[in-house]
Design brief:
70 residues, mainly alpha
Length: 70
């Protein structure tokens, strides 16, 4: 799945850390005068399970991955 992630995604990615994310955020704070803040705490509570599984199946057919996500 690594190639599917956006370059600005830092959570649980090989070779990327929270300190890397802070470094990029610090650099961007000097370039932009706005901030976008998102709270996705309940995102997966509101997504349709069938739609989620269709999206997951586009990226994997590994039975144990599908089992854990279901």
């Amino acid at each position: 799945m690594e190639p599917e992630f956006h370059p600005d995604s830092y959570g649980y990615r090989p070779g990327k850390s929270a300190l890397d994310a802070i470094s990029v955020a610090r650099q961007r704070c000097w370039r932009y005068n706005w901030v976008l803040d998102l709270d996705i705490k309940t995102f997966f509570d509101s997504i349709e399970p069938d739609l989620l599984m269709r999206a997951v199946r586009k990226h994997t057919d590994c039975p144990w991955v599908l089992l854990y996500i279901e």
